[in-house]
């Protein structure tokens, strides 16, 4: 997630997949008497009809007004054109995935708008101009089939990765159709595996057998709208009669398969997810029987290597005479876990109080850890020897973000990316796990020499020190007049780390803007403890942290309320929505992107029920009481003075319901508040189906921020 584009960062952060929905966007199953009563009393409930004609007419009318306001600004087209130029530039890094002894890449530019899936050899990939072999052209496929296909990835089987399951979305939704594809012939397999549109998790057992978690019909989905069943589907048989391997409860979040195929053999695992942050695992034996693994629920399984389960701990665990801490990465013998008695657990790495493990890449012979230490990146190589696991830091640039781009269980090679706010990305190859080689670099998109980036700390309401990054001109005056954009997320154990500003540098920094990223609680910057500090009844801590950063920027005279804006998407849209309703006095601009806002009904809309482990259950009175205190939709007040917010979403977002944004805007307007609204009719949870649409959304936001924080309109 560190390889993100600014202004769209959080648009894809909530949940890994979304959920099947009814026609009006509600989740199937479950009893929601309180939420149903809320809907009955809500005068804007009709805006929850995702593709209802009345709701879409309302959205189109708002789009017309927004376009008249923002697109007619003479700065819009230059900003949009520059953003598109940056986003579609042919000289940007073609990030690849190590697969089947080759490197896979999905590429979009001004010509390949929907994109192409392509492959090359590792030797060719190291060259400035690799010799790419196009595997699948999504633009051509869309034209041939008369569909607006958006590529959502693939899952291949075998050491050569030649048989693949291709995922295609209609317009950018999370729901996908799945088709079997033969890379050797560059064609879909006639009579091969196919699955209709659904939110689904599929994996390979072997070349002729799939593990399938999808919508199998009535009763097969959890209250959260995910699959309750994992079935074993053999080639040539009817999916409807495929035997059930695992079935979880109606109130569980999901059942999912996870197959690990490595040189030493295959491991077939099935997961029951009691909630978004707990996992119960089962292993499928060669006899076809399942064995529940003797692991605690508070784990995050990262993979399997040489007979060991590689597990990150979300909770403390006392086992085999050891006291392991949340945040630790450990290796657990699979055979012992399957037998139900664990007598040995090997500690791979234990981060300190100021550190966290962000990413884990498992290669054939080593495990690589993407670490954060005070929110800056390090790369650690760990190997198992006779005396246990030992680690060494890999020599890569400091004071930025390091992220593991790709490892492969059949390879010893590793791809790693480095970036910071002002330095363009560099992609490193560790050939055979050896000395890093810089093989690709992103050209500078703006002159960074006048700017600097630094880390500062604010003090939250309860005394917690909250770090934040600030990017500004070196000659910035502490006079309170600097137009400043503050970005935050604060949820789901996701960290906000330095990343090159690219289009944002041209669109914001060069016109005098200052950019700030807050590392508030709820994120993963300091591991599970930082995340868990703002869960459920403690959610207000994340909002207090964000407001403390804003106050610190004003106190230190970086800016003042009239020149301070905030931005966030998805869970970050909830953050900015809450912050606007609680402290409107602090801000002159607010961007609320693809947001959750009606937190008393969120659990009934799309994938919302799966996030109750983060926010709580509004159907439980005690939990509803603390959710109600911050829910933005219910806390709008007619007598308040809010900044003129810019709220945007997508009709095709089948993860966070567009009704959140629609209803919030409708209520603001009913109360007489000014607000700007945009709804992309396609685009999914990123609110953009392709790079051209992303450039337009970026330009809309930059023009809005310019008008509010620089022009003072």
Which features characterize this protein?
33% strand; 15 helices; Methylamine Dehydrogenase, Chain H; Rossmann fold; 713 residues; alpha+beta; single chain; 5-stranded antiparallel sheet; 20% helix; 8-stranded mixed sheet
Concise description?
It contains 15 helices and 39 strands. The protein is α+β, with helices and mostly antiparallel strands.
Helix content: 10-25%
Largest sheet: 8 strands, mixed
Query: How many structural domains are formed by the residues?
Result: 2
Terminus-to-terminus distance: 35 Å
CATH fold group of the largest domain: Rossmann fold
Beta fraction: 25-35%
Write the CATH architecture name of the largest domain.
Answer: 3-Layer(aba) Sandwich
State the CATH superfamily name of the largest domain: Alpha/Beta hydrolase fold, catalytic domain
Shape: globular
- Rg (CA only): 25 Å
The mean pLDDT is 93
CATH level-1 class of the largest domain: Alpha Beta
Structural class: alpha+beta
């Amino acid at each position: 997630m560190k390889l993100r584009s600014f202004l769209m960062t959080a648009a894809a952060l909530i949940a890994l997949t979304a959920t099947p929905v009814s026609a009006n966007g509600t989740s199937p199953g479950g009893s929601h008497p309180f939420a149903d009563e809320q809907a009955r009393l809500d005068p804007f409930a009709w805006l929850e009809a995702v593709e209802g004609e009345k709701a879409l007419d309302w959205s189109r009318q708002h789009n017309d007004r927004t376009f008249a306001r923002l697109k007619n600004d003479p700065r819009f087209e230059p900003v949009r054109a520059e953003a598109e130029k940056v986003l579609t530039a042919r000289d940007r890094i073609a990030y690849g995935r190590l697969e089947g002894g080759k490197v896979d890449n999905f590429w979009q530019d001004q010509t390949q708008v929907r994109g192409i899936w392509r492959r090359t050899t590792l030797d060719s990939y190291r060259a400035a101009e690799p010799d790419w072999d196009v595997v699948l052209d999504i633009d051509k496929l869309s034209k041939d089939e008369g569909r607006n296909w958006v590529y959502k990835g693939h899952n291949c089987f075998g050491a050569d990765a030649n048989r693949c399951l291709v995922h295609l979305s209609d317009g950018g939704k999370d729901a996908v159709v799945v088709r079997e594809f033969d890379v050797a012939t560059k064609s879909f397999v006639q009579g091969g595996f196919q699955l209709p549109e659904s939110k689904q998790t599929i994996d390979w057992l072997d070349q002729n057998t799939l593990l399938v978690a999808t919508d199998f019909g009535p009763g097969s989905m959890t209250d959260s709208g995910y699959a309750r069943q994992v079935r074993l589907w053999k080639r040539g048989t009817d999916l409807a009669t495929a035997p059930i391997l695992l079935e979880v409860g109606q109130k569980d979040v999901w059942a999912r398969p996870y197959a690990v195929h490595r040189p030493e053999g295959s491991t077939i695992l099935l997961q029951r997810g009691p909630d978004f942050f707990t996992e119960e695992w089962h292993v499928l034996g060669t006899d076809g029987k399942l064995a529940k693994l003797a692991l605690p629920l508070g784990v995050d399984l990262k993979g399997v290597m040489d007979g060991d389960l590689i597990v990150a701990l979300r909770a403390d665990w006392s086992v085999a005479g050891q006291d392991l801490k949340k945040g630790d990465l450990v290796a657990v013998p699979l055979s012992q876990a399957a037998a139900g008695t664990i007598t040995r657990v090997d500690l791979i790495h234990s981060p300190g109080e100021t550190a966290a493990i962000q990413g884990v890449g498992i290669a054939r012979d080593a495990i690589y850890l993407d670490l954060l230490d005070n929110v800056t990146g390090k790369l650690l190589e760990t190997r198992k020897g006779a005396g246990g696991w030992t680690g060494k830091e890999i020599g890569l640039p400091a004071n930025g973000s390091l992220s593991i781009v790709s490892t492969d269980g059949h390879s010893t090679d590793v791809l790693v990316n480095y970036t910071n706010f002002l330095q363009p990305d560099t992609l490193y190859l560790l050939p055979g796990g050896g000395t890093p080689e810089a093989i690709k670099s992103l050209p500078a998109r703006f002159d960074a020499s006048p700017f600097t980036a630094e880390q500062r700390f604010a003090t939250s309401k309860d005394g917690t020190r909250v770090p934040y990054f600030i990017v500004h001109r070196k000659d910035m005056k502490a006079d309170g007049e600097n137009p400043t954009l503050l970005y935050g997320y604060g949820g789901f154990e996701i960290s906000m780390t330095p990343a090159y500003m690219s289009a944002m540098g041209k669109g914001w920094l060069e016109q005098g803007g200052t950019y700030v990223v807050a590392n508030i609680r709820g994120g993963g910057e300091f591991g599970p403890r930082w995340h868990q500090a703002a869960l459920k009844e403690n959610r207000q801590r994340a909002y207090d942290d964000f407001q403390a950063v804003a106050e610190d920027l004003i106190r230190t005279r970086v800016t003042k309320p009239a020149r301070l804006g905030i931005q966030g998407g998805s869970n970050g849209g909830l953050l900015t929505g809450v912050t606007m309703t609680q402290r409107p006095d602090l801000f002159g601009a607010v961007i609320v992107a693809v947001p959750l806002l009606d937190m008393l009904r969120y659990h009934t809309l799309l994938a919302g029920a799966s996030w109750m482990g983060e926010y709580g259950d509004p159907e439980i009175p005690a939990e509803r009481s603390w959710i109600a205190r911050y829910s933005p939709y219910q806390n709008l007040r007619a007598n308040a003075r809010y900044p003129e917010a810019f709220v945007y979403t997508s009709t095709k977002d089948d993860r966070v319901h567009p009704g959140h944004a629609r209803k919030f805007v409708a209520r603001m307007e009913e109360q007489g508040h000014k607000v700007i609204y945009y709804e992309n009719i396609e685009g999914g949870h990123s609110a953009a189906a392709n790079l051209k649409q992303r450039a337009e959304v970026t330009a809309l936001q930059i023009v809005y921020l310019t008008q509010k924080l620089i022009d003072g309109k």
